[in-house]
């Protein structure tokens, strides 16, 4: 009798498998009819001519600074940096970024004072002459030395020759007119004394005498100094027994010069006495560091001022400093936070032969640029108008809003004006660098930029047009208690969500904490509410959910918590693993290294913390990473996603609404393993319930096994311990020992042997004999076994989740091989024992000939009337295989994956599909990731990482066939799934809580979901509604009418600029099928779907995967702006997804996990920003109209102005020159342009060569000047010429009048003289 019962059970299983096989075959035959498309044409007004990629402006501190220069007439400052970049700085908003064609660092910069040009020297020994008279500065000439390396350059004021020192100790001269080398060369062996037996080293510094242009001071690297007479071609040598000289500077009268030495000493030398210094001093004592930079200036009272960098003691902990020495031995030391790169005096006059007191000194540091005020006691720093402190703490996140409300900007400026740098004294005088003409605002938008930093600070910047000013700074980690070990906890900002209308701010940190900030105009005191999200921590083990005593909900709590508890208990009764901990319990506090400061603390006006969503993590674990966030002020809900799941938090009542694990989001178990082999024509799939083999040639099911049937054994009976027992329900069950007999069932492998190869047989026998097994079979309360088919089709979900929590701590790639390992089990409150199949146990090995599944499956919609795309040829067979795998998996697990949202079993959102019968299935894609292994003999591995990557709130029609719009939350997964949840928002949140219900639809894309957006029926971009800002201390709460209005979507696109239907096709499309449009973007595709019909409208598959996407507007037309993995910007039209534009933005490839993705943000109006370097932010636009407006409204670098009057020549100097037979000045042009010999000319061509450039056709700088004059400059010059002409005419009129007066006087005198002599007699003469 027992044998007949077993045969009957076996036959029952076989009949069900046969029925499933027929269902699969019929489903494959009829799958073509499931595809439903809506055919219509869209008239899009945008074209590719409207798109471009233009860099607007770059803000921040230049990366890797190298040199500094100043134009005292134009009042411009130049900073040379690494990667061939130059920054020209003037007044506020005059900030230009220039770049060479190569990435070599800029080592030297020299201004052509008041001539609109400058010269740069790069590390590759090339010299470049720039012209910045035009709006877009460019290179006029280029020259490269081929045999020697450039070590220093010097350009005297109003000189036509550039002095170049090299590493071999030679000095060359470059003509600025032709940019060619002169044959005049100062060789090192002629400059040094014959007594010097060694090479003096390279030329460290060159300086021309202020009063005698024939004397050139040369400082060599190894210490010798000399003054070379250019006219006499001989040198005046000085003593070499001093420490090596590092820098030197002339006195204004040209009679003395000062040197800074390697031991920190200063020496003053006189031209009349070359054997020893006139004066020697050690400002900071013996054994000091070298003096690297030196300035020697005098004021009008002839009081010397010496400023130098370096010379500090060699003791540890001594900071870099700038020392200022004045008369009477007074010294002031200004300590710096970073090493000093260069210093430059900001003189008021370009002439170096007159005493002048510099108003300030520009100090270029490694990570900052400061200007020191020398006219104020104490030497304070000027407040810089440039945003040089962006990288004060390393930037970790960037958010950009190109259309910010004006009132928000004004409020941030108001609360941030009292924030000043701690301990820093700022000069009250205006900033001395005032060159250039500021730019006009081209966009007309109020732009807001947010930068999150590693120290937890969040900075708000006003970024309108080309300006960037700091408005407000928020320290997001201040509300936590101080921790001694700061290496364990990091408050670095990882994500930011800002609601511009309500001014709510949501910030996530690297330690897995999410804080909600509310903007308050006045100071206030309040406590911070804490919601603990233990379910979002993958390393936190939740206690047993069975029994009311284990719920972390107080029975005496308020009605809101009571309602929440009722909802949670209802969900738990449907086998959910979720628990709720809305307060910090002792268990969670012990697992959280950071604590929130308790009590009501007084906080300044601005953003104040209101709610903290805390995710616990303990020692030995890393903090949970926040993968996605969403905030909606109108709904009053915050969504947070991690690698463990997603949670919804009510920001009105500060309570947890609900949380889900990743596999619970769309109500099914994940496929744990899968393998495919084209030679055998077989695919194997493994789940937590069992394994199945599918024939991909005939598209039929070969066989399927439960976990216990794989080994042909009886399952081990297991029951829960009693409540009085000390055993824990989460402890693993006891496996049978070796002495206990294992009663095995006879297992019929005939169907298996007839289908699979002998290789699989050997693997099965080998694995079965060597592996340990823990197999749990479901038992009833009486201890009797149920039927096998019911035992594997009806499994308690709570146990699966408990076991899964232990079985899947890491989701690595699985090798498909039969290798059965021991598993820990779990138990439920019903004492059921499900059969479990671990990810390590569901593996199959095929032969050496394998097929790579490189082609991902087509996008699918999982619904009652879902669809897939039919393969066109044999190459797409792998896609069909995955579809069959999906069906089989759901067939095995169908009865045990009922949604935990089943509050009402008859609810349409959770009920089974209409017309469902035994063996039917829901269309789903398994999570997948094809192996990228280049080996052809390796198995195709499929990874199972799954997490929420995109969260979007919207009011839409998420239920299929229902055109009623409801508040929804759309989730995008890393596996390509898109899930929609409906939010039921009660009118009174204090009495009732928010209820979340699934929409019943899952949309499948290829790979990770990046962005989810929406359009209305008129093809206008829509966003979820938002609540308007209200002061919590003054404004009253919103009314029901306001709440209803806030729930409505906000239309971003103007109706006049939106696309339209062609030929009046709008009437032919029904609202039941086409009410809204969903924009779904993943790594490998972008898809447009109609809602609520879920029909595919348009599809775009890029050649290179996307890494970032967002909807924007170009000239007001809706577009989709994407960033792909190659670093290019891709513009697609909406809704047709037509490729409009593609251009390179980054020079290197980009991945989704790269930090640059967090530091790049796309915004409205085709604008975007990204961190070009760790200290610089680059703004760009993809709109051609905006690009032309920016070019027209750009400012000017060169402003025509008069040259200051030269100093008057002394009378005694003129007399001495006249009677001493001396020349007032020598003609350097005649010296350097003397007739060279053929040999010398050939030698110069071998030393340097001219580099062709775009401006090579220009014969000289003057020609470039004449061609590089803009309209504004031409108008200014014309007005100036008119003024000069008027002045000259006035001078002529005055001179004519004077001549007339003189003539009249002469006439009157002559008349009087004639009259006088006429009256005299001849004898009176």
From TrEMBL:
<keyword id="KW-0472">Membrane</keyword>
<keyword id="KW-0677">Repeat</keyword>
<keyword id="KW-0963">Cytoplasm</keyword>
<dbReference type="GO" id="GO:0006893">
    <property type="term" value="P:Golgi to plasma membrane transport"/>
</dbReference>
<keyword id="KW-1133">Transmembrane helix</keyword>
<feature type="compositionally biased region" description="Polar residues">
    <location>
        <begin position="928"/>
        <end position="937"/>
    </location>
</feature>
<dbReference type="GO" id="GO:0005886">
    <property type="term" value="C:plasma membrane"/>
</dbReference>
<comment type="similarity">
    <text>Belongs to the WD repeat L(2)GL family.</text>
</comment>
<keyword id="KW-1003">Cell membrane</keyword>
<dbReference type="GO" id="GO:0045159">
    <property type="term" value="F:myosin II binding"/>
</dbReference>
<feature type="region of interest" description="Disordered">
    <location>
        <begin position="721"/>
        <end position="792"/>
    </location>
</feature>
<dbReference type="GO" id="GO:0005096">
    <property type="term" value="F:GTPase activator activity"/>
</dbReference>
<keyword id="KW-0812">Transmembrane</keyword>
<dbReference type="InterPro" id="IPR042855">
    <property type="entry name" value="V_SNARE_CC"/>
</dbReference>
<keyword id="KW-0268">Exocytosis</keyword>
<dbReference type="InterPro" id="IPR001680">
    <property type="entry name" value="WD40_rpt"/>
</dbReference>
<protein>
    <submittedName>
        <fullName>V-SNARE coiled-coil homology domain-containing protein</fullName>
    </submittedName>
</protein>
<dbReference type="GO" id="GO:0006887">
    <property type="term" value="P:exocytosis"/>
</dbReference>
<keyword id="KW-0853">WD repeat</keyword>
<feature type="region of interest" description="Disordered">
    <location>
        <begin position="896"/>
        <end position="937"/>
    </location>
</feature>
<dbReference type="GO" id="GO:0019905">
    <property type="term" value="F:syntaxin binding"/>
</dbReference>
<feature type="domain" description="V-SNARE coiled-coil homology">
    <location>
        <begin position="1260"/>
        <end position="1324"/>
    </location>
</feature>
<keyword id="KW-0175">Coiled coil</keyword>
<feature type="transmembrane region" description="Helical">
    <location>
        <begin position="634"/>
        <end position="658"/>
    </location>
</feature>
<dbReference type="InterPro" id="IPR000664">
    <property type="entry name" value="Lethal2_giant"/>
</dbReference>
<dbReference type="GO" id="GO:0031201">
    <property type="term" value="C:SNARE complex"/>
</dbReference>
<dbReference type="InterPro" id="IPR036322">
    <property type="entry name" value="WD40_repeat_dom_sf"/>
</dbReference>
<dbReference type="Pfam" id="PF08366">
    <property type="entry name" value="LLGL"/>
</dbReference>
<dbReference type="InterPro" id="IPR015943">
    <property type="entry name" value="WD40/YVTN_repeat-like_dom_sf"/>
</dbReference>
<dbReference type="InterPro" id="IPR013577">
    <property type="entry name" value="LLGL2"/>
</dbReference>
<feature type="transmembrane region" description="Helical">
    <location>
        <begin position="679"/>
        <end position="705"/>
    </location>
</feature>
């Amino acid at each position: 009798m027992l044998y007949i019962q077993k045969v009957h059970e076996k036959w029952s299983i076989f009949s069900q498998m046969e029925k499933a096989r027929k269902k699969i075959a019929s489903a494959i035959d009829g799958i073509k009819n499931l595809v439903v498309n809506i055919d219509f044409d869209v008239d899009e007004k945008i074209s590719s001519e409207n798109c471009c990629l233009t860099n607007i402006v770059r803000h921040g501190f230049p990366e890797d600074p190298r040199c500094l220069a100043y134009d005292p007439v134009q009042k411009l400052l130049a900073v040379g940096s690494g990667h061939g970049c130059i920054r020209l700085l003037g007044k506020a908003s005059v900030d230009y970024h220039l770049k060479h064609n190569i990435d070599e660092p800029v080592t030297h910069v020299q201004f052509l004072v008041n001539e609109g040009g400058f010269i740069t020297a790069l590390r590759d020994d090339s010299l470049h002459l720039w012209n910045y008279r035009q709006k877009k500065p460019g290179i006029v000439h280029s020259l490269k030395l081929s045999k020697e390396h450039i070590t220093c350059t010097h350009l005297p004021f109003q000189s036509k020759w550039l002095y170049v020192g090299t590493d071999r100790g030679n000095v060359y001269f470059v003509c600025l007119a032709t940019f060619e080398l002169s044959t005049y060369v100062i060789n090192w062996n002629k400059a040094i004394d014959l007594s010097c037996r060694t090479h003096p080293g390279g030329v460290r510094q060159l300086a021309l005498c202020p009063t005698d242009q024939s004397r050139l001071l040369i400082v060599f690297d190894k210490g010798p100094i000399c003054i070379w007479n250019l006219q006499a071609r001989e040198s005046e040598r000085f003593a070499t027994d001093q420490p090596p000289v590092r820098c030197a500077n002339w006195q204004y009268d040209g009679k003395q010069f000062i040197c800074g030495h390697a031991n920190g000493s200063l020496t003053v030398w006189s031209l009349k006495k070359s054997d020893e210094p006139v004066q020697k001093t050690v400002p900071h004592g013996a054994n000091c560091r070298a003096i690297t930079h030196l300035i020697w200036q005098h004021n009008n009272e002839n009081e010397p001022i010496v400023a130098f960098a370096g010379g500090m003691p060699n003791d540890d902990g001594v900071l870099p400093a700038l020392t200022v020495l004045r008369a009477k031995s007074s010294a002031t030391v200004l300590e710096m936070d970073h090493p000093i790169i260069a210093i430059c005096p900001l003189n008021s006059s370009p002439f170096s032969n007159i005493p002048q007191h510099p108003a300030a000194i520009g100090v270029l540091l490694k990570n900052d640029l400061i200007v020191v005020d020398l006219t104020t006691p104490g030497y304070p720093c000027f407040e810089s108008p440039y945003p040089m402190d962006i990288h004060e703490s390393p930037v970790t996140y960037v958010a950009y809003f190109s259309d910010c409300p004006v009132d928000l900007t004004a409020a941030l400026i108001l609360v941030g004006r009292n924030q000043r740098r701690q301990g820093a004294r700022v000069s009250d005088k205006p900033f001395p660098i005032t060159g250039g003409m500021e730019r006009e605002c081209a966009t007309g938008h109020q732009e807001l930029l947010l930068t999150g930093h590693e120290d937890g600070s969040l900075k708000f910047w006003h970024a309108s047009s080309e300006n960037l000013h700091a408005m407000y700074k928020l320290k997001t980690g201040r509300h936590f208690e101080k921790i001694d070990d700061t290496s364990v906890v990091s408050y670095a900002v990882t994500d930011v969500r800002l609601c511009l209308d309500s001014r709510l701010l949501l910030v996530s940190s690297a330690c897995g904490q999410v804080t909600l900030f509310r903007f308050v105009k006045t100071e206030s005191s309040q406590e911070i509410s804490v919601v603990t999200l233990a379910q979002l921590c993958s390393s936190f083990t939740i206690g047993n959910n069975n029994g009311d005593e284990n719920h972390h909900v107080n029975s005496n709590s308020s009605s809101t918590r009571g309602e929440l508890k009722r909802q949670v208990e209802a969900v738990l009764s449907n086998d959910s693993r979720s628990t709720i901990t809305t307060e910090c319990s002792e268990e969670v506090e012990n697992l959280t290294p950071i604590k929130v400061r308790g009590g009501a603390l007084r906080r300044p006006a601005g953003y104040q913390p209101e709610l903290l969503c805390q995710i616990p993590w303990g020692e030995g674990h890393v903090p949970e990473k926040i993968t996605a966030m969403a905030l909606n002020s109108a709904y009053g809900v915050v969504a947070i996603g991690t690698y463990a799941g997603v949670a919804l938090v009510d920001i009105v009542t500060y309570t947890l609404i609900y949380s889900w694990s990743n596999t619970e989001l769309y109500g099914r178990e994940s496929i744990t393993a899968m393998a495919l082999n084209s030679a055998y024509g077989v695919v194997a799939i493994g789940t937590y319930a069992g394994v199945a083999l599918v024939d991909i040639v005939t598209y039929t099911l070969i066989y399927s096994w439960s976990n216990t049937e794989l080994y042909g054994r009886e399952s081990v009976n297991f029951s829960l311990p009693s409540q009085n027992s000390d055993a824990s329900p989460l402890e693993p069950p006891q496996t049978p020992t070796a002495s206990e007999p294992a009663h095995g069932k006879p297992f019929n492998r005939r169907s298996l042997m007839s289908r699979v190869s002998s290789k699989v047989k050997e693997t099965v026998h080998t694995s079965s004999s060597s592996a340990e097994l823990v197999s749990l079979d479901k038992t009833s309360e009486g201890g009797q076994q149920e039927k096998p088919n019911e035992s594997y089709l009806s499994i308690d979900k709570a146990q699966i989740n408990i076991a899964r929590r232990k079985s899947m701590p890491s989701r690595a790639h699985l090798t498909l091989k039969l290798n059965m390992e021991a598993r820990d089990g779990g138990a439920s409150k019903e004492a059921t024992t499900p059969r479990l199949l671990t990810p390590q146990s569901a593996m199959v090995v095929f032969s050496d000939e394998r097929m790579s599944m490189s082609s991902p499956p087509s996008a699918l919609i999982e619904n009652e009337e879902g669809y897939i795309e039919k393969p066109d040829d044999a190459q797409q067979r792998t896609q069909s295989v995955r579809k069959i795998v999906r069906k089989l998996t759901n067939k095995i697990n169908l009865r045990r994956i009922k949604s935990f949202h089943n509050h009402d079993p008859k609810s349409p959102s959770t009920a089974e599909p209409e017309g469902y019968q035994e063996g039917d299935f829901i269309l789903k894609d398994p999570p997948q990731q094809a192996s990228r292994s280049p080996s052809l003999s390796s198995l195709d591995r499929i990874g199972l990482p799954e997490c929420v990557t995109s969260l979007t709130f919207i009011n839409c029609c998420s239920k299929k066939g229902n055109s009623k719009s409801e508040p929804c939350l759309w989730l995008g997964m890393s596996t390509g799934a898109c899930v929609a949840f409906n939010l039921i928002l009660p009118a009174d949140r204090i009495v009732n809580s928010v209820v979340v219900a699934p929409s019943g639809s899952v949309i499948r894309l290829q790979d990770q979901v990046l962005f989810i957006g929406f359009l209305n029926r008129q093809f206008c971009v829509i966003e979820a509604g938002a609540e308007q800002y209200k002061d919590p201390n003054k404004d009253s709460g919103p009314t029901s009418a306001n709440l209803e209005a806030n729930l409505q979507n906000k239309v971003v696109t103007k109706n006049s600029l939106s696309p339209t239907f062609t030929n009046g096709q709008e009437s032919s499309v029904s609202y039941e099928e086409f009410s809204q449009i969903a924009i779904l973007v993943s790594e490998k595709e972008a898809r447009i779907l109609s809602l609520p019909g879920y029909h595919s409208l348009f599809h775009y598959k890029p050649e290179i995967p996307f890494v970032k996407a967002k909807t924007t507007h170009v000239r007001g037309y809706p577009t989709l702006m994407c960033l792909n993995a190659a670093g290019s910007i891709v513009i697609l039209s909406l809704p047709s997804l037509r490729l409009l534009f593609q251009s390179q933005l980054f020079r290197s490839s980009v991945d989704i996990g790269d930090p640059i993705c967090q530091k790049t943000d796309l915004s409205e109006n085709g604008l975007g920003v990204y961190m070009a370097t760790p200290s610089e932010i680059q703004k760009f636009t993809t709109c051609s109209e905006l690009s032309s407006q920016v070019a027209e409204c750009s400012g000017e670098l060169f402003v025509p102005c008069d040259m200051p009057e030269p100093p008057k020549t002394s009378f005694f100097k003129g007399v001495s020159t006249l009677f001493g037979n001396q020349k007032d000045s020598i003609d350097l042009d005649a010296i350097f342009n003397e007739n060279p010999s053929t040999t010398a000319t050939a030698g110069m061509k071998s030393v340097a060569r001219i580099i062709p450039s775009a401006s090579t056709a220009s014969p000289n700088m003057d020609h470039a000047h004449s061609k590089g004059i803009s309209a504004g400059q031409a108008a200014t010059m014309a007005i100036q010429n008119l003024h000069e002409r008027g002045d000259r005419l006035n001078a002529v009129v005055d001179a004519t009048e004077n001549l007339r007066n003189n003539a009249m006087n002469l006439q009157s005198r002559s008349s009087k003289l004639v009259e006088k002599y006429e009256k005299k007699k001849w004898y009176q003469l």
